[in-house]
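Researcher: Checking consistency across runs. Here is N-(5'-phosphoribosyl)anthranilate isomerase again:
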Amino acid sequence: MTTAFGFRVKICGVRKLSDLQAAADAGADAVGLNFHPPSVRYLPEDKRRGELAEAARELGLRTVGVFVNEPIPSLRRVADELQLSAVQLHGDESLDDAQRLLDESLPVIRAIRLPTDPLAPSDIDHRVAPWQQAGCGILLDADAGGSFGGVGHRLDWSGIGRWAADAPFRWMLAGGLTPETLGIAIKQACPFGVDVASGVEQPRGIKNKALIEAFCRTAHSLPPTD
């Protein structure tokens, strides 16, 4: 029941200890800690970062740091200080940036931002292949422009499913996932894991315990795709 990074269900953008508890109680495997200042889910540089990371580990949750165009030395410092399980590159980072982190034995998840319009499997593969071959975990998300994710835009799940049929590796899906849409998204796109932020919030930026429970319940009720 694990990917290379140890999870099938990731609750991204947690900001409070109660978010962590809700995720753990619902059976999530990982949480995302957002280090992109413009985001409504941003964690400022204070003691709360360390408290959340430590509490997540105590609850058995993997911690993934979400970064957008962060200088690699700064990213590495945060990852070391918080003992992150992995880092997620969600901006315009280069393959060389990812390779520097991988060479230091830091697991890297690359967010591939896809347009919401239908794409041919070959188009998706062209975007994914260099990162996957370098050793990055792959997360497919909807291109949200300057927001860099977390706004609920939905991908062409059936088109992704056609690509996934020939993808011989585990990958994760994000973008437009909610407790209501998750079932059809998994059936059409066939991801190994799923990642949600806005889909378990009410209002935006505030995690909702009931939505987290419903999302995880749906995720765990469906047969694994691997």
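Researcher: Does this match what you'd expect to see?
Model: One thing to look at in this run: The chain has one domain: 9-221.
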